[in-house]
Specification:
The chain has 200 residues and is mainly β. It has a single domain, classed as Porin (Beta Barrel). The chain is 12% helix and 54% strand. The protein has helices spanning 2-18, 24-30; strands spanning 45-54, 68-77, 80-91, 99-114, 122-138, 143-160, 167-175, 179-185, 191-199. It has an 8-stranded antiparallel beta barrel with strand order 1-2-3-4-5-6-7-9. The protein is elongated and about 50 Å long. The termini are far apart.
C-alpha cells in the first residue's frame, strides 16, 4: 500500500511538471554544446533599411554608371532572411549590346539564405517574386517589347558587416518576366543586374 502511494505521488508530480509551459529560449540557453559550453546562437539582426545602386555594363558617360536605384527593407535571423524592395533601372544592363531596357519592380519580395550566419560577412542566395514591368528597345534588331506582370528572380550576393549598425552588400540578380498581365512585341528575355547597396 505504501509503495502504491509513492508511485501515485510521483505520477501526480510528473503530470504537474508536464503542465508547466517551457520557454524555448531558456531551453536553448541551458542546452550545452558537445564540449560542455553553452550552445551558441547566431545573433539576431534587427531589420535594416537599405539603398541600392544598380550598375550598367556599358555606360555612355560617368553619369550613367548607375542608371538604376532601389530602396528596401531586409531582416535576417540565423540562416534565413526576408527582403522587400522597390527598384527601377534604365540602361543597357549586362549583355545587351545595342539594347536599352527599363525594368521596375514594386514590390519585389525575396527569401534569402545566408551560408555563414554567425560571421560578420556571408555569401547568400535568394529567390524572389516581384510585380513590375519591362520595356526593351533594340535598335540593331529593330525589336520592341513591353511587359507588365509577375517577374521571378534569382540573386547571389555577398553581405559585409552584417551585425554592425551600417552594413553593405554586392549582388547579382537575374530576373525573368514570366506571367504577364499585359504584353506586346517580342517575348522579353532575362535581365541581369549587378548592384551595390548599403543599409542602416
Amino acid at each position: 500500500m505504501k509503495k502504491q502511494s509513492i508511485i501515485l505521488t510521483l505520477l501526480v508530480a510528473a503530470f504537474g511538471f508536464a503542465d508547466q509551459p517551457f520557454d524555448s529560449q531558456e531551453i536553448a540557453q541551458m542546452s550545452p554544446s558537445s564540449d560542455g559550453a553553452p550552445a551558441y546562437e547566431a545573433p539576431v539582426r534587427k531589420g535594416s533599411i537599405y539603398f541600392r545602386a544598380i550598375t550598367d555594363s556599358q555606360p555612355s558617360n560617368v553619369a550613367n554608371v548607375f542608371p538604376g536605384l532601389g530602396i528596401g527593407y531586409r531582416r535576417s535571423f540565423n540562416h534565413s532572411g526576408v527582403d522587400i524592395s522597390f527598384n527601377y533601372s534604365n540602361g543597357k544592363g549586362w549583355g545587351a549590346q545595342n539594347a536599352r531596357q527599363i525594368l521596375w519592380t514594386a514590390p519585389k519580395v525575396s527569401y534569402l539564405y545566408y551560408f555563414s550566419p554567425q560571421g560578420s560577412q556571408s555569401v547568400y542566395g535568394g529567390l524572389g517574386l516581384g510585380w513590375g514591368g519591362t520595356q526593351l528597345r533594340n535598335t540593331a534588331k529593330n525589336e520592341r517589347s513591353n511587359f507588365l506582370g509577375l517577374i521571378p528572380n534569382f540573386s547571389l550576393g555577398y553581405e559585409l558587416l552584417r551585425h554592425s549598425i551600417i552594413s553593405s552588400f554586392m549582388e547579382v540578380t537575374i530576373s525573368q518576366p514570366l506571367i504577364p498581365s499585359s504584353s506586346s512585341g517580342t517575348s522579353p528575355g532575362p535581365v541581369v543586374e549587378f548592384s551595390l547597396g548599403a543599409g542602416f
